[in-house]
Amino acid sequence: MKMEEMRLIPYHVESTVEQTSEVPKGIELIQAPEIWDESKKGKGVVVAVIDTGVQTDHPDLADRIIGGYNFTSDYDNDPNNFYDNNGHGTHVSGTIAASENDQGVVGVAPEASILALKVLTSEGSGQYDWIIKGIQYATNWKGAGGERVGVISMSLGGPEDVPEMHQAIIEAVNSGIPVVVAAGNEGDNREDTFEYSYPGSYNEVIEVGAVDLDLKLASFSDTNTEVDVVAPGVQILSTYPQNKYAVLSGTSMATPHVSGAIALLKNLTSTYFDRELTEAELYAQLIRRTLPLGYRGSSEGNGIVSLDLLSQIQKVIKPATEQKS
């Protein structure tokens, strides 16, 4: 196939800091801490982060990395060196699974594991062939303890619909793996015009748009007919190379919130149903836990992810049912 290039969805670095100690507001907004106990904080779930790699020795991530692979030309094509030389992959990984260690930040699923698949170079670009191989690797990967990938997270995109990439995603989904993808940052702040980026616009993926920390739709967030949900993507604090932390904005930052949320839901639902759910069932469980914000479906999909929403509804309706009994 023709070796086209895909790029990171553009993002903005707001600031960097040497130290911090907090649960980022985005994690709180999607109500992740409220379901940590019943979801075991994502323990045992492997999230494949297909990105620029990861800082494997970052104090908030070192315990979370289960493996990785470098598909790029960086590091003289060394497949075993998937160290992040850009920053994006480290930031995304922290939002998904930064450890709860009384320092730095905490991820959505702080006991989940990260499989870091480096498909983009230090410049944030990569050949479609690398992306496709990364998706296939995640689909077929098996850990030393028999682990399999539970979620694929991709905060990347491009304007081209590449059939081979689409097929790789279909195979991942058919194997039971939800594929979470950023919607893109080409939005023009109008709900009546659509912007399409791939792989986000494929129907099989879970396409994520961005809202700010006041739950307003981000002006840059792509709107189109395939948006599934929105999550915090403006001024998101997470891990960054050189043991630092950074505040970044973009649908790239919204996507890992949803990837981490699915890691939590995998554990929560398998306990409740006494079985592993299919990809379609996991998607349905995610959508059950969304709250519409008043925008068009092509802007917010089903709404913002609100992981504790069902418990909150139950508290409201329980008195009424008790009165009837």
TrEMBL record:
GO molecular function: metal ion binding; serine-type endopeptidase activity
Transmembrane portions of the chain: none
Catalytic residues of the enzyme: D51 (charge relay system), H88 (charge relay system), S252 (charge relay system)
Pfam family of the protein (one): Peptidase_S8
Alphabetized UniProt keyword annotations: Hydrolase, Metal-binding, Protease, Serine protease
GO BP terms in the entry: proteolysis
Alphabetized PANTHER family for the sequence: CEREVISIN-RELATED, PEPTIDASE S8
Family, per entry: Belongs to the peptidase S8 family.
Protein name: Serine protease
The encoding gene: isp
